[in-house]
Amino acid sequence: MRVENSFIPVRGVGETTERRLWEDDITHWDDFHPSAVGRKTGERVESFIDEARPRLDAGDAAFFDQQFPSSERWRLYENFRDSACFFDIETTGLDQERNEVTTVSFHRDGETTTLVNGDDLTAENVRAQFADADLLVTFNGKRFDVPFLETSFGLDVETPHLDLMYTCKKLGLSGGLKPIEQEIGIERDRPDISGRDAVRLWKEHERGEDGSLETLISYNREDAVNLRTLADEATERLDRRTFVDG
């Protein structure tokens, strides 16, 4: 589903009205005519479409992030996936005030970059990774990854954000990233490594144990790469359920 198929951002158009429009073969902004709804609602829909078209042409993801209900922001993914940044962090613990970020992996345009604490993990480099992204994609990033980065590096991350934890919950998929990956068939090179292991690997690296950092980086990078696969699958399933199957 693309944002052009959506009418739900308009005040007065809920899920029921939107579905009725689709059932009447009004499945795209181009298909809309005011007579399909009440006069006032029709005027609001036309006004929204008139404003939304140039915003979409300009790649203004922030506009649609503000317009869509939070539970429906997954609909932005199809339009902005090519300019999305999939990222994941590893830390020394769960407390953003006391613990440190150890590695951050960013996956964009088929390429993966990892920044490492004590080397190239700086506020400037994190900011640079986000600079050209129209959409950030994480798993539990709203509560963990983004606040951790903001606290640790003095950042203010304002890029529109799709947190797949909530997208998956709409599909009835709950729990952590790894169990959900297993449930939908995403395989890992090292399924035996967990977030707890990531903390251990960093401590081993600090003690100078060979291979620990490389293993941690590999694990972190796989998290970021798999987010793309998970986002593709989850939004496709929601698309079928919401737009096709009804």
Automatic annotation (TrEMBL):
Can you give the residue ranges of the YprB ribonuclease H-like domain?
A: 85-233
Q: Which Pfam families match?
A: RNase_H_2 (PF13482)
- What does the record list as coiled-coil region(s)? none
| Gene3D superfamilies per UniProt | Ribonuclease H-like superfamily/Ribonuclease H (3.30.420.10)
Query: What domain of life?
Result: Archaea
Transmembrane ranges, per UniProt, are none
Q: Which InterPro entries match?
A: RNaseH-like_sf, RNaseH_sf, YprB_RNase_H-like_dom
Q: Which PANTHER family match?
A: EXONUCLEASE-LIKE PROTEIN, YPRB RIBONUCLEASE H-LIKE DOMAIN-CONTAINING PROTEIN
List the protein's name: Ribonuclease H-like domain-containing protein
